[in-house]
Design a protein that fits this description.
This protein is mainly β and about 120 residues long. About 0% of the residues lie in helices and about 55% in strands. Strands 2, 4, 5, 6, 9, 10 and 11 form a seven-stranded mixed β-sheet that branches.
Length: about 120
């Protein structure tokens, strides 16, 4: 089992920044890919970024150039630095860990609200 706990959400003005954290515990050696997803009100959950064990990253077009995903293996923690935030970035952000056999683990989410 793997436990994922997100933190760092909150209210921010348009153009502002936030950094989300995802702390992992348990059988983290089984995790191949760590990623971030989000779900806006009334919409389906969408993938926004992931990071491979090699450090290779990928981003959805909607966040490319504004968000940066990173991981600190010594702390078993993944981060999402979010800059130039827009109202349409308002959502619950979820941390995801995918095992080598494609089983997914999810955190409970952290709410990000971008509003003036």
């Amino acid at each position: 089992q793997v436990q994922l706990v997100e933190s760092g959400g909150g209210l921010v003005q348009p153009g502002g920044s936030l950094r989300l954290s995802c702390a992992a515990s348990g059988s983290i050696f089984s995790i191949k890919v760590l990623g971030w997803y989000r779900q806006a009100p009334g919409k389906e959950r969408e993938w926004i970024a992931h990071i491979m064990p090699s450090g290779i990253t990928n981003y959805a077009d909607s966040v490319k150039g504004r968000f940066t995903i990173s991981r600190d293996n010594a702390k078993n923690t993944m981060y999402l630095q979010m800059n130039s935030l827009k109202p349409e970035d308002t959502a619950v952000y979820y941390c995801n860990g995918r095992r080598y056999d494609s089983m997914d683990y999810w955190g409970k989410g952290t709410l990000v609200t971008v509003s003036s």
